Amino acid sequence: MSDPANGGAAPIPITVEFTGGLEILFANERNHKISLPGRLDDGSNPNISYLLHYLVDNLMKDQRKELFIMEDNVRPGILVLINDADWELEGEEKYELQAGDNIVFVSTLHGG
Amino acid sequence: MAPTLCFNCKTERAVIIRPKNRHKLCRECFIKVFETEVHETITNAKLFYPGERIAIGASGGKDSTVLAAVLKTLNERYNYGLELSLLSIDEGIRGYRDDSLETVKRNAVQYDMPLKIVGYGELYGWTMDQVVEQVGKKGNCTYCGVFRRQALDRGAAMLEIQHVVTGHNADDVAETVMMNLLRGDLPRLSRGTSIVTESKASDTKRSKPLKYAYEKEIVLYAHHRRLDYFSTECIYSPEAFRGSARTLIKDLEKIRPSSILDIVKSGEDMAVLVPGNTVPGGKSCKSSAAADDEAGGCGSQNGRSSGGEMAAMEQQLAANDTAESRETEIKMPKKGSDTKKIKTQTLQYCEQCGYISSQRICKACTLLDGLNRNRPKTAIEIGLEDEEGSSTLARQMEHIQLTNS
């Protein structure tokens, strides 16, 4: 999946958006620009699973990790959109991130 | 990876997998299908008549915002001839409702609908901030639920509108079914599943046009139409985020997405079986509490746990009524004797506020009495955690209503 033109190792800039109440867990910031390593230590390319850990370790300000991640995956009730498409259409957590991707996490769990 | 094409138009890139049938749809087709299904719900249930004036219970959250947007669209597309208004309740919770009311105000402009905001402060002389200051965080949802139900009715009355639509969705209904199933409360289960609730205790009809719409699709509809909505948690109900029935529903959806509509369907089928008058007190319960389940709009709770709140409220009212410190003419029934006798509820006007009530004094006034007497701490020791005992106490409450009528 990784673009060979990137050399595989060039950093991957992406944008991440939290909405539907999830932004509360991320310092009330809705939009985040981040850069992922082009290649991981084990030689694989960063995918959504990696991104989840990255977000928890680097971006999440709230201690309640379980409100975002459960059993090593996105908590049920939180939708993931990869470039506006349901992540199920893109391979879910195995989707390998591409430069310029926009990943949206929307909670359906919050009310008004 | 080549993009998956839309199941419907076969040309655009699919961005959605529908939970109910796994169809993969593009943005345009999804929006159209979602709207068409709400239209079918409306026409099948004959929810509206031409020229009807409708108040949309609007909190600024995803459900009511989507409801307003869809109703506006359908009203224009299918010439319903409806006159739509937004009706919002200001509970008086600083840092919570004031922000979402700003969203509602923007919605009013975006959808070109008149907006009416009714506040607890003006209606009752107590904002929720003041109530919580007095009674504490535990049990305050009870006040909020009772006050909101009446506030929506009163707001509708001010607008001279007799039909309030709320944003309850399929997930909410499924959750209500599960909760009442777990609680053994079939009458409430039955009420929670019906699309329209009309109560003798109220001039106002309530309905939920999004009853069959998945929460997931509501959120995606809002996302893809870039609707302006506000997400928040009520600062006074931190437990709401972890409602166990919700978690169960979401977990089931993850494994088998059709579960949600299946539970709704099961609930409807069970509702048919609920005997309105073979259960002692069942009938009385039905008419007196018919509007209870419609107390939604409470932030994250949004009707999801209103059953619990209402049960807790009944529990607390029962406690109030039995407390000797209360001046009351209500007599407790002898166990086993009167309970099988079913009396129909006589509706009257609350002696204090004139609101239609099944009791001499309506529930809101009873709660206000407690607040005004500065003695709530003894009465309100019931939180959401105490739901287990609610059905028993709710039944006791029914008996009290029976003898009082």
Task: Itemize the secondary structure elements and their pairings.
The complex is a heterodimer of chains A (112) and B (405).
Chain A: E1 12-19, E2 31-36, H1 48-58, E3 69-70, E4 73-74, E5 78-82, E6 85-86, E7 102-107
Parallel strand pairs in A: 1-7
Antiparallel strand pairs in A: 1-2, 3-4, 5-6, 5-7
Chain B: E1 16-17, E2 24-25, H1 27-44, E3 53-57, H2 62-77, E4 83-90, H3 97-110, E5 115-119, H4 120-124, H5 128-135, H6 140-158, E6 163-165, H7 170-183, H8 186-193, E7 196-197, E8 205-207, H9 215-224, H10 244-255, H11 259-273, H12 282-288, H13 306-322, E9 348-349, E10 356-357, H14 363-372, H15 376-379, H16 390-404
Parallel strand pairs in B: 3-4, 3-6, 4-5, 6-8
Antiparallel strand pairs in B: 1-2, 7-8, 9-10
Helix pairs in contact in B: 2-9, 6-13, 7-8, 7-10, 7-11, 8-11, 13-16
Main attributes?
heterodimer; A: 112 residues; mainly beta; Ubiquitin-like (UB roll); disordered N terminus; B: 405 residues; alpha/beta; Rossmann fold; 6-stranded mixed sheet; globular
CATH superfamily of chain B: HUPs
Mean pLDDT of chain B: 79
Instruction: Write down the CATH topology of chain A.
Output: Ubiquitin-like (UB roll)
Q: Total helix count of chain B?
A: 16
User: How can the largest sheet of chain B be summarized?
Assistant: 6 strands, mixed
Q: Tell me roughly what share of residues is in helical segments of chain A.
A: under 10%
Q: What gross morphology of chain B would you assign?
A: globular
Strand content of chain A: 25-35%
How many separate domains of chain A?
1
Tally of helical runs of chain A: 1
The largest β sheet of chain A comes out as:
5 strands, mixed
CATH architecture call of chain A: Roll
Main location (chain A): cytoplasm
Keywords (chain A): Cytoplasm, Isopeptide bond, tRNA processing, Ubl conjugation pathway
Family (chain A): Belongs to the URM1 family.
Subcellular location (chain A): Cytoplasm
